[in-house]
Automatic annotation (TrEMBL):
NCBIfam families assigned: PRK06523.1 (NF005095)
Family: Belongs to the short-chain dehydrogenases/reductases (SDR) family.
Organism whose genome encodes this protein: Streptomyces griseoluteus
InterPro entries in alphabetical order: NAD(P)-bd_dom_sf, Sc_DH/Rdtase_CS, SDR_fam
Keyword tags: Oxidoreductase
A molecular-function term among this protein's GO annotations: oxidoreductase activity
Domain of life: Bacteria
The UniProt record lists the keyword Glycoprotein: no
Protein name: SDR family oxidoreductase
Signal peptide: none
PANTHER family recorded: OXIDOREDUCTASE, SHORT-CHAIN DEHYDROGENASE/REDUCTASE FAMILY (AFU_ORTHOLOGUE AFUA_5G02870), SHORT-CHAIN DEHYDROGENASE_REDUCTASE FAMILY PROTEIN
UniProt-listed CDD domains: SDR_c (cd05233)
A Pfam family matched in the record: adh_short_C2
């Protein structure tokens, strides 16, 4: 049994300080709940607290899409928590378009900011503290749509593909310092953001409606399906896991 497991083999995060972006609903809220249950002190962020901040979590409003937003959030995390041992980049998403060629330039930049550069900027601000302390765990949330040709979401899949590549490279850089970096890649998960996007996609392309029947395990994912994988990866149970990409999609998009 590892030092951070309890008698039942559940990961324990007592004494760990975690920052989770986008924790007011959906997958992020599920991750916050799991980390709290495991004993971590958790700070989460969203543009507003109009969603539900899970009980027991601290909250600071921030927009992670800008350099200023990332800097303010990193400063608030150090202020509130005293430092960050666990960093989960969950805030993300994009709206579909009828044509990939019709995605406006500003929207490309916005989607790249939210789904790729927010992680790059926050890591640059918070990973050095982990490196100095000789430990830490970072998780980037990608999308199972990355290897698939989905023109309506091309801005999104390009940003998430970049995130996966970035995550592997950062893992290699930080491994010698004892800091682990992994990616978790969800398929279709029932969340407010996911449902909204799928409704809009079905409106643009009615053949997409009801495609949950394509999930080999027969149902959409739940936020907790993703949160349990994140909990494992940030705990000492995954102490020999870095640079990995944990695809959790009910078997919909097998990767070689
Ligand atoms: N659900 C799926 O089917 C699915 C599939 C594959 C991948 N994913 C990925 O999983 C992650 C979570 O998705 P979800 O479906 O749970 O999303 P969601 O239901 O839309 O929740 C997103 C969370 O992020 C926050 N957020 C959004 N933009 C933000 C910003 N600019 N700055 C700070 N916080 C922001 C939201 O709060 P505010 O709106 O108040 O800011 C909310 O708390 C995303 O990275 C998404 O790409 C989801």
């Amino acid at each position: 049994m590892g030092a951070t497991e309890n008698g039942t083999g559940t990961p324990e995060l007592k004494g760990k300080r975690a920052l989770v972006t986008g924790g007011t609903r959906g997958i992020g809220a599920g991750i916050v709940r799991r980390l709290l249950e495991a004993g971590a002190e958790v700070l989460t962020t969203a543009r507003s607290s109009s969603g539900t901040v899970p009980e027991g979590a601290r909250f600071v409003a921030a927009d992670v899409r800008s350099r200023e937003g990332a800097a303010e959030l990193a400063a608030a995390a150090v202020d509130v928590l005293g430092g960050v041992d666990i960093l989960v980049h969950n805030a993300g998403g994009a709206q579909p378009h009828a044509s990939a060629l019709g995605i406006p330039d500003e929207e490309w930049l916005d989607v790249l900011d939210l789904n790729l550069l927010a992680s790059v900027r926050l890591d640059a601000l918070l990973a050095p503290g982990m490196r100095e302390r000789g430990s830490g765990a970072i998780v980037h949330i990608s999308s199972a749509a990355v290897p698939v040709a989905f023109p309506p979401f091309l801005h999104y899949t390009v940003a998430k593909a970049g995130l996966e590549n970035y995550s592997r490279g950062l893992a290699a850089e930080l491994a010698p310092a004892g800091v682990r970096v992994n990616t978790v890649t969800p398929g279709r998960v029932a969340t407010p953001g996911g449902e909204k996007v799928r409704e809009e996609w079905a409106r643009l392309d009615p053949t997409q409606a009801g495609s949950e029947s394509l999930v080999p395990l027969g149902r959409d994912g739940l936020p907790d399906d993703i949160a349990r994988a994140v909990l494992f990866l940030v705990s000492d149970q995954a102490s020999w896991v870095t640079g990995s990409n944990f695809v959790i999609d009910g078997g919909e998009f097998p990767r070689g």
